[in-house]
Amino acid sequence: MDRKRGAYPEYTLEDAIATIFLLRTPLGRKQIAEKLELGEGTVRTLLRKLSNLGIIGSRQRGHFLTKKGEELKVKINESFLDPIGVSVDGWPAFAIIVRKPPEFKSIELRDEAIKFDAKGAMILTVKNSEIVFPEDLRPLKETYPEIVKKLRNYEEGDAIVIAWAETPAKALKAAIHVAVIMKENNLPGELLEVVR
């Protein structure tokens, strides 16, 4: 019986999506591993899978999105936009604008972010062109005006996920996780191939 040696590298759908977002500019495997807090073996496996699916290519300058990868990113952006780095009470955080979300319970989504290593999360909505807490329609700008200044391209009815954590990588993946849960029925099939 043949046995493979060593631990099998594992990555999540959130790691794959984060990698696609990170590859706006070419990056090396080590840079990706550092930004996502993954082992280099895991990143090697993830990059190989993305490459085999034709989503990324590589050159001396690093890995990059192919035409197919760029098209996939456009499809992802139909569900949610690229994460925006922000800060919440000194914690590293990321905000993601989720397009036309289904009905949601912000407490349940916040709990999902926490299960995914976030320290906390806010799930907001856009109402009357303003980012508000859905429970009481209190504007985000009253509490976090600096975050509101960084957010652009949101539309009426969009949701905005903001997750914060001990590290930027954990905050990024927690925010992506909540966006994935909200839009799981709209994710492109080729994206799901990455984790099969």
UniProtKB/TrEMBL annotation:
Domain of life: Archaea
SUPFAM superfamilies with a match to the protein in the record: GAD domain-like (SSF55261), Winged helix' DNA-binding domain (SSF46785)
Lineage of source species: Archaea, Methanobacteriati, Methanobacteriota, Thermococci, Thermococcales
Entry protein name: DUF4443 domain-containing protein
Domain DUF4443: 94-180
Keyword Zinc-finger found: no
Domain named PH0730-like N-terminal: residues: 12-71
A Pfam family reported for this protein in Swiss-Prot or TrEMBL: PH0730-like_N
Keyword Ligase carried by entry: yes
UniProt KW keywords: ATP-binding, Ligase, Nucleotide-binding, Protein biosynthesis
